[in-house]
Amino acid sequence: MKTVPRGPGFPPVAGTGRIVPGLLVCRRKRGAVPQGSGYVVHEGCDHIFFVGFLGAGKSTLARNLGALFHRPHVDTDRLVERRLGKSVAEIFADEGEDAFRDAETRELSRLSGRKSLLVSCGGGIVERPENCELMHEMGVVVYLDGDLEDSLRQIRRPERRPDLGSAEHAREVYRHRRPLYQGAADLTIDIRDKTFEQVALESGQLLWERGLL
Ligand SMILES: Nc1ncnc2c1ncn2[C@@H]1O[C@H](COP(=O)(O)OP(=O)(O)OP(=O)(O)O)[C@@H](O)[C@H]1O
Ligand SMILES: O=C(O)C1=C[C@@H](O)[C@@H](O)[C@H](O)C1
Ligand SMILES: [Mg+2]
């Protein structure tokens, strides 16, 4: 990815801005050309992948930043579900985890044909080194580094999470995964003791300052 820098200032104010709880959302008119108006121009694939444990807030963050920076958001779990026509829980139950992981890798590689996505990833995306390579080929990886307990509290409908299992199992997975997330990350955001809005502002600023948004 080649980056053409633009002027200072966060967030990018072009079009109209409005405040929503804790967040400044900047609206750009449809079709507006980002040249010379403080927008970054990237050549090649320039996705931003958000990784982290279950319930860390990846989807919420990618959605919030998508609204803030006018970038499309996709979620790998939702892409797999749409492609296979069933929920993640059903895929695990009917076809097993390997089939889910194969589908996840296929969906990930399909993103190479798209531009400027904010991608919230399934919690297990880092289980396959091939996925980490794909993400690095297509952009940068941001790790939301948080506590296991916060993740567990935030998970909605834990009974629908085939990957979660008992608290002890979740703890084991967390311990096993943390170095994988760290190894994959280009950037790490410490999300402990922060609200979802604080995380969105902090990561937006970090990515903006580095010319990634
Ligand atoms: N602004 C918010 N304030 C408080 N809680 C929130 C907020 N946004 C989301 N949540 C809660 O936190 C949960 C986890 O957030 P999110 O779904 O973004 O995490 P995730 O990392 O994508 O999780 P998953 O592993 O399920 O994909 C949500 O299901 C929701 O219940
Ligand atoms: O952490 C995991 O292994 C998973 C997380 C979810 O996002 C889904 O991708 C699936 O349930 C597996
Ligand atoms: Mg999610």
Automatic annotation (TrEMBL):
Its main subcellular localisation, reduced to a broad class, is cytoplasm
What enzyme class is recorded for this protein? transferase
Identify the stretch annotated as signal peptide in this record: none
Q: Which keywords appear in this protein's UniProt record, sorted alphabetically? A: Amino-acid biosynthesis, Aromatic amino acid biosynthesis, ATP-binding, Cytoplasm, Kinase, Magnesium, Metal-binding, Nucleotide-binding, Transferase
Describe how the cofactor binds: Binds 1 Mg(2+) ion per subunit.
Pathway(s) the chain acts in: Metabolic intermediate biosynthesis; chorismate biosynthesis; chorismate from D-erythrose 4-phosphate and phosphoenolpyruvate: step 5/7
Pfam families according to UniProt = SKI
The EC designation for this entry is 2.7.1.71
Q: Does the keyword Secreted apply?
A: no
Q: Which PROSITE patterns match?
A: SHIKIMATE_KINASE (PS01128)
Give me the residues that bind Mg(2+), please. Answer: S59
Q: Which InterPro entries match?
A: P-loop_NTPase, Shikimate/glucono_kinase, Shikimate_kinase/TSH1, Shikimate_kinase_CS
What is its subcellular localisation? Cytoplasm
The residues that the entry says bind ATP are G55, A56, G57, K58, S59, T60, R161
Q: Which GO terms describe its molecular function?
A: kinase activity
Q: Where do transmembrane segments lie in this chain?
A: none
Quickly give the catalysed reaction.
Answer: shikimate + ATP = 3-phosphoshikimate + ADP + H(+)
Q: Which cofactor does it need?
A: Mg(2+)
- What this chain does, per the record? Catalyzes the specific phosphorylation of the 3-hydroxyl group of shikimic acid using ATP as a cosubstrate.
Family, similarity comment: Belongs to the shikimate kinase family.
**Could you identify this protein by its name?**
Shikimate kinase
**Classification lineage:** Bacteria, Bacillati, Actinomycetota, Coriobacteriia, Coriobacteriales
